[in-house]
Fold each of these.
Amino acid sequence: MPTNVKSDRRYTKDHEWAMASDGAVQVGITAYAVEQLGDITLVNLDVKEGDLVAEGKAFGTIESVKTLSDLFAPVSGKVTKINKDLESKPELVNDDCYGAWMIAIEAPASSIDGLLDAKAYEDLVASLDH
Amino acid sequence: MSDQQPKHTPLHAEHLRAKGRMVPFAGYELPVQYAGLVEEHRAVRSAAGVFDVSHMGELELDGPGAAAVVNELITNDAAKLVNGQALYTCACNERGTILDDLIVYRRSAGAWLVVCNASNREKIAGHFAAAAKGRCNFADVSDATALIALQGPRALAIAGAVGGPDLSGLKSFHFAKATLAGVAVTASRTGYTGEDGLEIFCANADAPQLWRALLDAGAVPAGLGARDTLRLEARLSLYGNDIDETTNPLEAGLAWVVKLDKADFVGKRALVEIKEQGLARRLVGFEVTGRGIARHGYPLQDASGAVIGTCTSGSPGPTVGKNIGLGYVPSALSAIGSPFVVDCRGRPAEAVVVKTPFYKRAI
């Protein structure tokens, strides 16, 4: 199965991606997560700009026709932006999951160094797909 | 059952070939979806889909006493059936709550088939076997029987395309022996999707040949996910969600399969009492008008936040284009148009009771 993983970012075991740029970390979900969820129908963010999120804590949920999944913050920090487009167009996550970021967290680029790199994440997905 | 490895249906290899995403379900490993739930849902609404429902239980009762045994265990009245006709029914316990929902087939006066949910197979087989003892023969033939549901407006055309007879004269809830794709089958004009279609019984060994022929003729393989959204839009009950041993058929909106005027049956006395006392709650269909998707188990609340009931089934309805659900609410709050709130994991979403089915096909 093609895993479709990008090398310009890091990953979590919960199938989220984190990409650092300009002092912030954008967060989204991976192609594997999208494939598992199926047709995405709702993105609910429990945070607004200025709120603090803590690493490993849920900041929202994403729902497909069949199921729902929590969204976890990969790093701690202040939410600098949320992607409001997803409120009315959750299908953007299906269309381009690596473009459809959900929130941006104020954090240094080094904050994601401890997350999985593309190779490690690919291996993780491969181990799930045996 | 839970400790055992999931069982495979005779179509397991076909599911893997069609890249089905396999999940455990009622003791079996079955595809939740192939290409995509919504795509499969739409294929069934607009053309034809094919589902492996071989996990369902098939019980046979034969002999002169079989008709009476069957009719004593079900809430609907099998006495009115003719040969080749089937009916949907509940089987209740003495408390009048639901052991299972079934389709009962009359092959002849002395030969009956009962199809039950896979999750209830052992319970229902035991229930029927006990009643049959000394009165008629009983056999659980589930493990030897495959069942394929061919559903959608093109279902009958596809059955014809694989060499089947013209089944357009086969009435709803009637069944007949036929040969499809060279396979001896029993084709029943029934289903669980709200569409026209057939449920096709055949021997395990013949199932792959029939399945492949149906796909080649244009039927889209559809999984448990689409089966659930299709049945919800059509407001067909799901055992374990909408009905179970804590619910009775009257409050579940299944009074139409409860014939209190027929001779005694298991649960009759309790159901008469329940009816006389009046229903405390009812299973209603609702539409989430606020932002949220109702799911099984979510609390339903009134405007003050007090819990008034529980959502038993819920999801987006791909054809109706709304987030819909079923749930039990007090009778006084069950009228069409009654508002309430669904507690979606702490997020309140407004909802309103609506008429069901949510989706009804054009005849």
Amino acid sequence: MSQKTVVIKGTKDGISIILRRHSDFNTIKNSIFEKLQKGGEFFRGGQARLLVKEGYISQEEMEQLEMMLKEFGLNLKKDPPLYTVPYPNPPQPETLVLKKTLRSGQRISYSGNVVIVGDANPGSEIIAKGDILVFGALQGMAHAGADGDVNSIVAAYRLQPTQLRIADVISRPPEGKNIIPQVPEIARLKDGVIIIEPLCLP
Amino acid sequence: MGQVIVITSGKGGVGKTTTTANIGTGLALLKHRKVVMIDADIGLRNLDVVMGLENRIVYDLVDVVQGVCRLKQALIRDKRFENLYLLPAAQTKDKNAVSPEQMKNLCEQLREDFDYVLVDCPAGIEQGFKNAIAGADKAIIVTTPEVSAVRDADRVIGLLEAEGLNEPQLIINRIRPDMVKRGDMMDIDDIIDILAIDLLGVIPEDERIVISTNRGEPAVADENSKAGQAYRNIARRLEGENIPIMSLDVEPTLMERIKMLFGLRSRR
């Protein structure tokens, strides 16, 4: 064990008990007990802080420690928070909403989803790490899931792109046919190929 | 080693892009030459649209210059015409994204693999023009029979000479024989008098050009297009064939007039 499980340090506003939980709680408890006992009456009336550097301490164990510290005349300070837990859900990608016509040569590059309320004209480019929604005619280039997210989609009120890209798959409309869609459509990846379907509402 | 030809005009809208597309296609189609067309009009690209290759662009000229991709990855092969390639411009950047030295290097690289490197120059005489002519060893000037277009062509010829591009060749585009006949339009020899350079070809005004441009199919491949015929002749002349300037109208008076001008029989 390279680092000690329990280290007690004196600070200007009391003592700090630094924990690295490599072993079970009783060992830790005993270790603290031994150290405090060596100090005898020295600690009485003081303040204590608990810093958990590795592992965690449950609420129940915390209460046990608090009781034990009380016996030595130490008051356990509970704020600032004694330990932190990583936030359980990573933040969802944000969505950029643009209410404008995207013209030739204009390029939107965003690290989340992109929603265009308007048209995306030929020669415009939309690049998003997430999904792309166009409430209008999409006639430019659209690249959804630019970071490789194969579950990204491109949907538009009129889906007539010059070129569609989802993750690392590129597709373009069939040669020689100028099909003007009459319904909103959605493009997504299926078995490594971009497919386009009518966007049906249930 | 191929040759690098820049197609320029000074004035906008005279038909540089249409000319580039048609000469490039003509050389590949009729002469089976290996041709690459470079769209140097960064930020206002059109050559891809005129060629009907817009939807196949993945990488562009700026990506190549900045090392984002390899040159071969950015070249779009035209599936309709063997040996015809396009290097598209970027649409979301501007002319300053490329320097004349970089264009020069690019042209040097391309001429290794191609018989013809055609550079479609942007309008104007600023950065884009300087980039486009940087790697060229030959220039084609496009003009229309209008005083303003001829004036700009004259200015550009002077600028080309200053850059060491001597003896450019002239294409007179969108000529209307009926108007020339009435004296309402500049004549071919009026223009030649002012510009004093070699005439490479004369393209009649042709509404099929509008149709073919909108469809993305170069008129040079259209047997029924008069302008297409004129471009086919230009491609042959570039290859060293001696082809007379074609008659612009079936009206005998004009035919005589042109025969008089050039002392040649018309209609190849």
